[in-house]
Structure formats: C-alpha cells, structure tokens
Amino acid sequence: MLKKLLATAVVAATAFVLSEPVQAAGPGGLARNLRNNPTVSFIVAGRPTLAPFAHVKFCMENPGECRASAGVSTIALTDHREKQLRRVNASINASIRPVNDNGFDEFGDVWKIAVNSGDCEDFALTKRKRLIAMGWSPRALRIAVARTGSGEGHAVLVVKTSEGDLVLDNRTNAIKPWKKTDLRWIKIQSGDNPRLWMAM
User: What is the chain's pLDDT, residue by residue, as a tens digit (200 residues)?
Assistant: First the structure.
C-alpha cells in the first residue's frame, strides 16, 4: 500500500513540475527571450494627475525632451530590439554613478539627462534619450514614478512593447514586466504628451 501511495505521489509531483513554465535567465538575471513571457500585461493609466515638479522644471529647461511626437505607441519586440533594450539598460546602469540629489537646491530633486552621476530619474531620462536616438518611438518610452518595497521614491523608464510594458530600472540589469517588479506605482507619463501624467 505504501509503495502504491509513493508511486502516485511521484507521478503527481512530476506532472506538476512539467506543467510549470520554465524561464531561462541570462547574465545579470535578464530573461534570455522576453518574448517567451507567457503573460503580456499593459499599464492601464487612470485619471490625469499633477506632473512631478522636478519634471515640470526639466521640461522648461529641456523643451525638446518634452514635445508631443508622432510614432508608434507600442514597439514590436524583435530579437534586434530586445538586444538594443538590454544593451542600453546595462550600459547606462554602468556609466552613471548613483548619487541621490534630493536637497541639492531649494526645490529638492533635480532631473537631468546624460550625466556622469545622478539618481533614478537621471538614469531613466538618459535611457529614454538613448533609445530615441536609436530610432525608438518616443510615444512608447514613458517615465513612471513609484515607491520601492522599502517605501523610497523611485523613477524608472517603462517601454511599451508587443510583449507588454517592460521596466528599465537602474537598480538592476534585469528587464522585467511592470507587474513583476517590487514597485508600488504612483503615476506615469502620457505616451502622447510627455508633459501630461496619469495616476496608476
């Protein structure tokens, strides 16, 4: 009787293991093929909300970075595009020295682009600029504001692709679907107009 119960348990466990999707990971925890992601999920933005003050100031100083533009709102994630996304995320994460600039002026946080050192939004803005220079549609590249698992304010670049909204975060080289991060989302730019923000 015991042998029969053990055999049944082994068969059930084997069936469970074989039914679970297997995802390979490459260097730095990057999924080898983001397009094998079984769950495609897009952010559903809510009502319009106030833009972060530092972003308003950034747009006043860099109007070319905040123009509404044409182009597709969703990038088809081909092998070539996936490699570009990985390369940009990893290279900018490595090239900017992380420094928290809260309190550097009377207005608090300062958002900058293409810097040697900076904090999370500087990484996100620089990644956006680099991808646009490589031919990516600005409409598919949005900055989002969130809180980390520890409650710290954070900003990331969200890329809208045919495989869902993917997050490029300066804390990791892994590119993750937005629902698979540790972030609690607050607001995100409109793809149609970077000056407009929506609650999440």
Answer: 434 433 433 333 333 333 333 332 333 334 445 656 557 899 998 999 999 999 999 999 999 999 998 899 999 999 999 999 999 999 999 999 999 866 444 446 899 998 999 999 999 999 999 999 999 999 999 999 999 999 999 999 999 999 999 999 999 999 999 999 999 999 999 999 999 999 99
To the nearest 10 degrees (0 to 180), the angle between helices 79-95 and 120-133 is 140
- Whole-number Å distance between alpha carbons of 154 and 169: 9
Number of domains composing the chain: 1
Could you list the residue range(s) of the whole structural domain that residue 176 is in? 2-199
Quote the radius of gyration of the chain (alpha carbons, Å): 20
Q: How far apart are CA 108 and CA 101, in angstroms?
A: 8
Secondary element (H or E) of residue 188: strand 184-189
CATH at residue 104: 3.10.620
* pTM for this model (two decimals): 0.79
The residue written with tokens 């015991």 in the block is 2
